[in-house]
Automatic annotation (TrEMBL):
Function: Pyridoxal 5'-phosphate (PLP)-binding protein, which is involved in PLP homeostasis.
Name by which UniProt lists this protein: Pyridoxal phosphate homeostasis protein
Organism annotation: Vandammella animalimorsus
Annotated Pfam families: Ala_racemase_N
Modified residues (N6-(pyridoxal phosphate)lysine): K46
Family classification: Belongs to the pyridoxal phosphate-binding protein YggS/PROSC family.
Repeat in keyword set: no
Domain Alanine racemase N-terminal, first and last residues per copy: 17-241
InterPro entries: Ala_racemase_N, PLP-binding_barrel, PyrdxlP_homeostasis
Keyword NAD: no
Classification via Gene3D superfamilies: Alanine racemase (3.20.20.10)
Organism domain of life: Bacteria
């Protein structure tokens, strides 16, 4: 067992960040009377080089979130020697990238069109694979955000029923960016209420349980409002170089 001061500084920092994150998740769960095992921490590794992600794997992380397919695909290839490492695509996808996603991803959190769902389903069938998917909802009403308006989601979910390679698990959203908690929480509440409605009103409702909401800057509010997945990048891997 190497002593912890033998670890590279980057790995030590990441382990500290992870421990801190788990503590904050547990505290937010305690405030909301929730069990921390109901909240999955999805580390978002976009812009972090593949070689550095070996440290994340060594620290025990087994699923990584990426918003760009090309980048994720490259890392999947570079890290294919690591057993049990899974990939979650959390960013908008164009139909022409469905082929790649079908090949290697385990989860896709940004489903927002039927044409894309059908293309993913077709490609997945070819590979004999299936994919966990979340429907992305635009809860903030910002034109710059992807995702379906909440009012379109019940019908959309019904239309996904024939896509048998897609396992529809729940909903994902990005909240309004604001330091004022009210509009941010409002987005999370909207997603939670929409999920409840789907559970009651749609045939697929019984298999829907996931609420992916909350990032480094707002995950505590998201947990208090019912998040089951929080997507955390910078608070684990450090600040990203600004684009
Ligand atoms: C980058 C990203 C995150 C994580 O953001 P951080 O601020 O780094 O925690 C979460 N969700 C999506 C869709 C992202 O693109």
């Amino acid at each position: 067992m190497p002593s912890s001061d033998a670890l590279p500084p980057a790995q030590l920092q990441m382990q500290r960040n992870l421990a801190n994150m788990r503590q904050r998740i547990a505290a937010a769960c305690a405030r909301a009377g929730r069990d921390p095992s109901q909240v999955r921490l999805l580390p978002v590794s976009k812009t972090v080089p593949a070689e550095q992600l070996r440290l994340a794997y060594a620290a025990g992380l087994r699923t990584l979130g990426e918003n760009k397919v090309q980048e994720a695909y490259g890392k999947w290839q570079a890290l294919s020697d690591l057993p049990g490492l899974r990939w979650s695509i959390i960013g908008h996808l164009q139909s022409n990238k469905a082929r790649q996603v079908a090949q290697f991803a385990d989860e896709f959190q940004a489903l927002d069109s039927l044409a894309l769902a059908q293309e993913l389903d077709r490609r997945l069938q070819q590979h004999g694979r299936s994919l966990d998917v979340l429907v992305q909802v635009n809860t903030s009403g910002e034109a710059s955000k992807f995702g379906l308006p909440a009012s379109d989601v019940p019908r959309f979910v019904q239309q996904l029923a024939p896509c048998s390679a897609l396992r529809v698990r729940g909903l994902m959203t990005l909240a309004m960016p604001s330091s004022d908690p009210a509009p941010v929480r409002g987005c999370f509440v909207q997603l939670r209420q929409l999920l409840q409605r789907l559970q009651q009103e749609t045939a697929l409702g019984a298999q829907l349980s996931e609420l992916s909401m909350g990032m480094s800057g707002d995950f505590e509010w998201a947990i208090e409002e019912g998040a089951t997945i929080v997507r955390i990048g910078q608070a684990i891997f450090g600040a990203r170089p600004s684009a």
